[in-house]
Amino acid sequence: MVTNVLYRTSATATGGGRDGRTALDDGSAQFDLTVPKELGGPGGDGLNPEQLFALGYSACFMGALRHQAAAQKITVPADTSIKVAVGIGPRDDEGFGLDVQIIVDLPGMDRDEAQALIEAAHHVCPYSHATKGTLAITPALA
Fold first, then answer.
1. Which is nearest to 139 in space by CA: 85, 79, 74, 90?
2. Mind listing the pLDDT tens digit for each residue in 52-80?
């Protein structure tokens, strides 16, 4: 539970949801949405909610990784990257669920130190915390 909200943003979706438009309420970003062909849509240039989730999660996880590294006085390689792959499919109990994979590339870092840092980042990342218990997420080294 959050004890003190330090920042809040909001977005509004219009149109058909997955085939509409979404925009930040402050006007700083807006996206046309398109249903992927794999989900029965036309595909095309628009984004979809899974892509937006992957964008946010990868950036958030990078922030959590760097936060934990600083707290532990660990130098994170400049060319570190976080890849988040988001899949969607039917659940056993009706509806749809997400499948998330986090692949972290920490070039040149000791493998055990890198894995411990990834696990610490996964523990403090707000996206990881928000989805805890609802998604099978396993962060791993590239």
1. 85
2. 999 999 999 999 999 999 999 999 999 99
For residue 124, give every residue at least 6 positions away whose Cβ sits within 8 Å of its Cβ, in sequence order, or none. 64, 67, 68
Domains of the chain: 1-47 (2.20.25.10), 49-141 (3.30.300.20)
Q: Is the model's pTM score more than 0.85? A: yes
Residue 50, classed as helix, strand or coil, is helix
**Per-position DSSP letters for 80-135, written without gaps between them:** -EEEEEEEEEE-TTSSEEEEEEEEEE-TTS-HHHHHHHHHHHHHH-HHHHHTTTTS
Cβ proximity of 41 and 35 under 8 Å:
yes
Q: Which residues pair with 12 in a beta bridge?
A: 23
